[in-house]
Amino acid sequence: MEGYTVTPLDYLCHLDTVADILRAVEPSQLSVMALRWQGMTNMEIAAALGVSHQAVACRLERARERIAGRVPGCAALLEGRKVNGRPVGVIETKKRNRKEAA
Description:
mainly alpha; 5 helices; Arc Repressor Mutant, subunit A
């Protein structure tokens, strides 16, 4: 936002929210989330981590559920967006994962 100044209180609230998110997820979920936010697909994440794309989808879904339960205001952020046509922060559905596997 133009003209918006981040106050120390805003910054502390942001840090607290990030800390809540980090506490909510397991390390395996966090690694998958980090790669997703870099724009990788489930298949790319699976190859990078040496796991199945189903494991990636499961970890993303569990992370989304845990974060949404612990930090409800972040649930919408976890639905994702696209940058240059690639998923960023997207929790893919099981239907989409089946298409990737084909």
